[in-house]
Amino acid sequence: MKVKTSIGRFVFPIFNYTFLIAFALLCLLPLIHVLAISFSSGTAAATGQVTLRPINFTFKAYEFVANKPEFIRSMIISFERVLIGVPLDMLLIILIAYPLSKDGRMLSFRRGYVIFFMITILFGGGLIPWYMVIKMTGLIDSIFALILPGAVSVFSVIILLNFFRNLPKEIEEAAFIDGASHWYTLWKIYVPLSMPAIATLILFSCVGHWNSWFDGIILMNRTEHYPLQSYLQTVVVQQGLIKMLTIQDTQLLLEVSDRTNKAAQIFIGALPILLVYPFLQRYFMSGIVMGSVKG
Amino acid sequence: MKHQRIAKLITLVLVASMILVLAACSSSKNTQQETTSSQASDSVSSEASANPEISDPMAKYDPPITITSVRPDLGTNYKYDADETIDNNVWTKAYQDNLGINIKFNWVVPVEQYPQKFGVAIASNDLPDVFDVNMKDFKLLIDNDAIADLTSVYEQYASPLTKSVIEADGGLVLGTAKFNGKLMAIPETQSMLDNIEMIWIRQDWLKKLNLPMPKTMDELVKTAEAFVSQDPDGNGKADTLGIAINKEAISGALTGWADIAPIFYAYHAYPGGWIKDASGNLVFGTIQPEVKTALAALQDMYSKKLIDREFGVKDGTKVAESTTAGKIGIVFGAMWNSLWPLNSSKENEKDPGDWIAIPLVSSDDKPVLSLVSSPATNYHVVNKNFEHPEALIKMINEWVENTMGPNADKNKYGTTPQGKEVFKMSMFRIWGPKQNLEIYQTVLAALQSKDPSQLNASDKTTYDKVIAYQGGDIKNWGTAAIFGPGGSQSILEQVDKNNQWIFNEYYGAPTQTQIDKGATLSKIQNEVFLKIIMGKESIDEFDKFVEQWKKLGGDQLTKEVNDWYKSK
Amino acid sequence: MEVLSSKGKKWIREMPLHLMMVPGILLLLIFSYGPMVGIVMAFQRFNATKGFFRSEWIGLDNFEFILQIPDVRQVFWNTIFIAFMKIIASLIVPVGLALLLNELRAKYIKRSIQTIIYLPYFLSWVLLAGILIDILSPSSGIVNQLLGIFGVEPIFFLGNEKIFPYLLVVTHVWKEAGFGTIIYLAALTGINPTLYEAAVVDGANRWRQIWHITLPGLTPIVILMTVLSLGGILNAGFDQVFNLYNPLVYSTGDIIDTMVYRMGLIDNQYSIATAVGLFKSVVSVILIMVSYKLADKYAGYKVL
Q1: What ipTM score was computed for the predicted complex, to two decimals?
Q2: Structural domain includes residue B566
């Protein structure tokens, strides 16, 4: 028995490290491929020679991007969107999740509220009515058209309310006995104790805002107002050859088909969001939160 | 008890949201009415002043009118001058100064995003005064009764020159914009010839393997066999792929690059087209026996590895990659393939491909004909509620005047001497039916006489590029391979001279069955064609496919198309 | 009197809770409930000029139209099959990865791996499809070259109708699993460390700790995610399928969304699209309700 466990203790970590590192490498491949293309010469990329190492190393694609005011302009819009959108999203999510985390005895009509919120994730009117409503609100072509319509993520609310519910009741009760208000309890006890969950939802919200492109295309009236991912759709989407092209169009095709520039833009476009996660990771340190409470 | 309360709450919430929406609806309706009524009163006053000069197609609006529109932008390649914007340029100035028209764009988005943005605009009835649509949306707008009948304004306002350009093909393309005898749009007429495809072949491989230029289908197959088996790139590996086909082209549709249709044409089969049969009725090209012959030939070619093994999976971009990498020696495509993607193959230092365009080949002694559909992809239309439908015609007159008229200033309104394509600033364009062929002929004459002094700026640019290529500048090969001596336009010149094409007789909008069943019908077609070619199904599956096609709505479709044809 | 005043007190105490939700509710009323008026399109032949209230009413014709499409059953089955396998895989793999990551002792390796497996999520399917076509190619792809070493004949993965659905699941996991682990990693932080300490004192090894402490600690979030993801049973991933499929694999790879897309290419059939959307919603509601009840009954866990 004893021998077996020690072998298990020895073998399992090796297996675990090997497996996870192998999986991680597999996940790294596509990004390395994109990077390699972005640093290769146009011909090397066009002939499909580039796999994981740049061929004829060059910074040309990055110079191209740096000289593209449209790219930088749309990136600024995306930053704006995240900076306004994420705090607003989080505020709304927390403000809904807290009341809903109470049970029916503490919150009248709780079931009604739950149904009200669930319906919004289950039913939708589709693109056209959605557009018409936003047009009626007069938000078209403003950054708030990208922020307000999706500001309440019911999915995130459900996750957060489940975290809230699992917090030990004793702390809250102690706070109430001391005369603390709901508002105080929420911000001074619930939120600090739920940082791992909130960090997760911040990440989801950042990713959502950064990556969404469709709303920009439908709701903005000028290319200059596009957020980055809407702008990049022009680059990423394959020029459908289904339509017959004229000589005049080939110029466009030439630009679109330059794979090195494409790759550089895709990479720079993803970089900020890739950096968010490592930054939020400190909130995922196992055990710290609950331990400090109990201690 | 509890349930009742919840029910009450939900009702309350729903009623509240309904009220909210209804209020919003009605308020927007009110403003809409206000604007239309104000527009109406505007027009009364302007009509009064416009009436006396109704016969003058170029008459100026006084006071000026404002027209709303929407448009795609010019792409990031277009270099704007300091004071030039999409709202303020030589064309908007021409409209203002010569016609008294101020054009205001409600939105301007990249070409790639235009269809989506426009689809939403149509469906939410958020349309500007004058705009461009494709055939599909055109039909929808007519169904929705959203656009104006242009029959009388075209008659009244189109200048003789405009009419001569639009109707140069005998009114064929204009006919595609007529519904129940009413002219509902002005099509952006284009060259029909430019859509006709040719064979692009690697001359250097032919030379290396001592092969003649293929003139028949048999010879082409033999050439392909040599290209696959005799290691034309000399790297000692059997890594050349034969003929490349992109996955969107399997049905025989023309995509302009790496198409399969020309092989069908070699066997006198015209998939996707509506062809007149002996009795004068229209029949669907896809289900004719010639297609079976062609499929059998394709199956044979595939089994001999003369067609890329993975062609069902690769799209145009992927095919372009293999081509540039020197894996492909024969490809069917349009005259512009030298500008994309063959130029990359030419510029590939490791293995520069020496591509040349040659005419399509036939499988027998009958000449090969290409299927030609209406070349108009763009229709200029006017909102039904707009008070000045004639303004569109005036702007088209302005286009014709500035780019083709006796006093045309092509350097200012067409392509500048610096190569800037200013003409793209004008949305309401039409082209002559042989525009590019004429450029070729003009440039060729200048090349032969070595005298470019008579050329306008854009033709001179073309001329200079051909000269530069002949001087060794490989970057200009793409243009030279089209407009230079022996370029792809010379192939089209022959096609034009010998009338080597067959017209797709159905050019109306999709019929009801096409709308309802079209997707299903093309799905089974793609599936069967691909499986037969790849040898996964026997060639006799084709007969079953024809039966199935007819049953699943094809017969109904044929009837509708013929009804349309007879009523035309 | 007594009762009334306590009721009144309850209201006063509750009031802040209700007020907190007002901003969110208002936004949802406008931007989620507002557009729901458009559901009427599913029962209309929608005409943009006439709008939602004056378009022609055609009852259930749009639904009948969908049901008479010749291969609609096959397409529905494909959708459910692919989506169901994806749901299962997206539960098992991320939970497994989170557990394995949790066992890593070297903090920096753990963090790096977490970050790396999260990367593919940010690449689009257009791009990944291009890469997949290359590495799965029967003639030059690396996968087939590796298989070749073991004497396996080249397999045309993307052209094989038996393999294709599984390929969709595997590549889906590859792209999304890393991102999916985040939520479970967050949940792991909620497990009380004193439980582990107590278990060690009791002499439980790692396996027992995982089995008796970690897994039960994750159960609520796993149930929650299962219930929520079941609502997506009719969404098999348009972007992925659209970029990878071809006529050879129509019989197993064509899903509702790609079919609707191909129909939409011919005409802007917003009524049909809305009818499909409504149908999906109804199926989601049923599945979510059933799974909610099951979770409550068998695990004693109320998701909401």
Answers
A1: 0.87
A2: no
